[in-house]
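Lecture 7 notes: from sequence to structure.
We start with the chain below.
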Amino acid sequence: MGNLLTPLGFNMLLQEGVHVYLQQPKVRGRPNSRFLTATVRGVQQANRAVEVNEMWRVRQKELELNDRLKEDQI
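Predicted structure tokens for the same chain:
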């Protein structure tokens, strides 16, 4: 994804120069398990919302098709 230029990053850029962004990132310890759990839950919730919206869209199309078929039968 690359480095995002946050206000802190912008200040670092002004102080240290562009070479800071070209350096290898510092290796961190294990990621926080609560952060990872929350991230996964957030992604699952977003995916579920997309699926529900798609299902409602399909249902709406089905109802429209049924209405058209009923009109054609009359």
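Points to note: The first helix runs from residue 7 to 16. DSSP finds three helices and no strands in the chain.
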